[in-house]
Amino acid sequence: MTGPPLVPFQQIVVKVHSRCDLACDHCYIYEHADQSWRTRPKAISDEAISWTALRLAEHAKSHALPSVSVILHGGEPLLAGPERLRRVCEEFTAALEPVAALDLRIHTNGIRLNDRFLDLFDEFDVRVGISLDGDRSANDRHRRYADGRTSHPLVLRAVDLLRQERYRHLYLGLLCTIDVANDPVAVYDALAELEPPRIDFLLPHATWDDPPARPDGSPTAYAEWILEIFDRWDARGRPVPVRLFDSVFSTLAGGPSLTESLGLAPSDLVVVETDGTLEQVDSLKSAYEGAAATGFDVFRHRFDDVASHPGVRARQLGLAGVSRTCRQCPVVRSCGGGLYTHRYATGSGFDNTSVYCNDLKALVRGIEERTAPSSASPAVSDPEALQILQQDLTRYTLARLNEELGGRGGERWSAAWELASAIEETSLGLDEIYAHPYTRTWLHTCLDALREQRPDAVELALRLEAYVAAAAVRSRLGVPVRVGCPTGTLVLPTLGELRLTDDGGPCEAEVGGGPDEVLVTVPGGATLRVRPGEAGPGWRTPRRPGLQGWPGLVLEDVDPFRDCFDETVGAAGDTEALSRAWALLRDAAPEQAAEIASSLTTLTPLRSGGPSVGRHAYGALGISLDGSPEELAAALLRGFSRAKLRAIGEVADLLAEDGAWLHPAPWQDEPLPASRLLAGAYERVMLAPLDPAAAAHAVLALKALRDAPEPTVSGKRLIAALHTEAARD
Fold it and tell me: Where is the Radical SAM core domain (predicted)?
């Protein structure tokens, strides 16, 4: 089978005992199609333990895995007894210690758990997950002894042991198999009362041949049951992590699934049976006899052999591994087509939707409807929030640079860093520097230089002195700041540049003063006075065209990092065309013009071409000032739409699995990936006041995106807002 590269196993389920002391009637091992347990030894042998540990260490080393999880399972693993479990822990610890971090876990019904087991688990840091289906009536529905006796009091005793202070760190959580005949709120309350570190709610294993029980006939009974728990959990402040809910949150926001039963992440789990045979995920035993078999064992085969097995590969294909119906479904990123086992039907194998398909749709949409207003990024609807988040991103990038330097900047960097911290605490001077579009361009240039080990990397980073000096001037701090000038020119971001040496030789300057007059003490002790906004001998400062309604606009032809565009930058030149284009925009598109004026601070003139969005430079646009006012007005709208969408995408995940699908584009014959369709629609919404036909195209594109799988919660909110605006136009 062709497909993606081999995915190494990072979770190994080791069956240490194949029998159980309970007779749960929903157990996939004993009650479903595959009955291979009957022919296997009760307990895993010493030889199988040793070979499994050896194979796992070999696998971890060959794939450079930082960690692996070993899950001790059954049957009921505690039936193996303390001595056999000690042997398992010792073998795996010894084999993995030189290779990778070992995460040991055990999943048990808990009825045999006692201090002796827990002391052993404490010694080897084995965390314990316990199966419990809720209160006594819910648990007794399925989890009973063969003679019908309840197991509930013994399970509660086991949980109480784990909650003791000396064992609390071993408490992994509770696993609850759903039965819609139980009261969901009573089940949740009973589990939450036990203060588990996590709750896992599991759909009962079922296939199209053996579908799940639906007592009331509802096609979404399981979703309704789970959503009742969600509402209770949410109303009580989400006191305990619930992996099912966390996984849906993650995928709705564009992140990965957190559970095998949902999402498109490739399977990374293999099972070792008590006789050393290697099998696929256990739940496949619900499908048919031999569904989990691979034909491999730990004595003769490597884990890589299993990873190459067609059945394993089929669960590692992501989107390509789900049915055609699923690939077109808007919630497929969250549900992932459901658990592989739950897709099985005689005749078509696993090429089907999940038998819980309607439940999964209703569950994902139900959680999204309940949480979207609070979980979507404010950047998609609030321009002020977008600006704040962009400044926070610049702060974060500066912190990254400080970390990457690792002290290589010496005393000069330390002094500038400390002064930046002082300014941050006492004034808003740094906010203006963080808001300067080309500050983050400089930061990323520094990070690239450090990564590439360029010889000028540290000197480039020491430009921090100039940024701090500009912030000190703007905040009227009154503290002179020493700035190195390696090319003989003092560059003060947002203020201007001053030539200090005729031959371009390096020097230092001391910068003070305030925003009305900057004082620069040069080599030899002379003090030069320059005014931002006014040219002087050797002093260049960005131009302010003074457009009505756009007073803060700067034509930036000074900053050395303004050349982050695809086209060549030039001088500011004549601004008459810009003035006329701006007047046209204010008249024809007043709302768009107002947003541009509040968000776009900097235009960098290009010699030709544009509009162009700079690298990490929100608030700036590269644009040629040539052309008619109509052409320039349209270029401003197009450029701003691109800049804003890029800026939103830097602080909010809008799309996931982009490129996995193609969508029809109303303005061209070829279909487009979601990102390009969204960009085209956004641009046309912005252009609608100048081109009414653009709005009609945007509406069609946004309708396609609204029902597409790629948009996240934030993306859907943005698409809805754009659709409303486009439909209005």
Answer: 6-243
